[in-house]
Amino acid sequence: LLLGCELTASTKSYTFQVDEEDDSDHILALSVVCLTDGAKDECNVVEVVGRNHENQEIAVPVANLKLSCQPLLSLDNFKLQPPVTFRLAAGSGPVHLTGWHRIIHREDVSLEDDDLSEEDEEELPPIKPAKK
């Protein structure tokens, strides 16, 4: 699934989250962050806000864009685990973020694992007694 959002002076943050009762694994990959029409020649800093392994909120800047020198940044599918918030920490934007959202259903993974283990069992040669 494709993801897209825009951060502006009036909408400084966007949160991507999934249903807590969803039993699937979710991966959010950020591809491109770019300034769009109407952007001023000022520094626009985009942060990713998430939680660390101790469940503490952390904010990490991922892009510093300026119209005259770096209006676009490719993040090469920077992978994140939802929930995650994108925040315009400095500047007035507009900054557009694009990426993709992948859903991995756990029952699909377990079925694949079962299929692999059956194949592995079939490929093993029979056990022969040791020679004396």
Helicity level, as a percent range? 10-25%
CATH topology title: Jelly Rolls
Q: Assign the structural class, choosing from mainly alpha, mainly beta, alpha/beta, alpha+beta, or little secondary structure.
A: mainly beta
CATH architecture annotation name: Sandwich
Count of individual helical segments:
1
Q: Give the strand content.
A: over 45%
Characterize the main sheet. Answer: 4 strands, antiparallel
Total count of strands: 8
Amino- and carboxy-terminal Cα gap: 62 Å
Mean pLDDT level: 83
Low-confidence stretches: 116-120
Domain Nucleoplasmin core: 3-102
GO molecular function: chromatin binding; histone binding; RNA binding
Family: Belongs to the nucleoplasmin family.
Keywords: Acetylation, Chaperone, Methylation, Nucleus, Phosphoprotein
Q: Would you mind describing this structure in some detail?
A:
The chain is mainly beta. The chain has one domain (2-104): Jelly Rolls (Sandwich), CATH 2.60.120. It has one helix at 106-123; strands spanning 2-7, 13-16, 25-35, 44-51, 57-65, 72-80, 84-90, 95-104. It has a 4-stranded antiparallel beta sheet. It has a 4-stranded antiparallel beta sheet with strand order 2-7-4-5, with no helix packed on it. A hairpin with a 5-residue loop joins strand 4 (44-51) and strand 5. The longest helix is centred in the last third of the chain and has 18 residues, at 106-123. The N and C termini lie far apart (62 Å). Mean pLDDT is 83; it is low at 116-120.
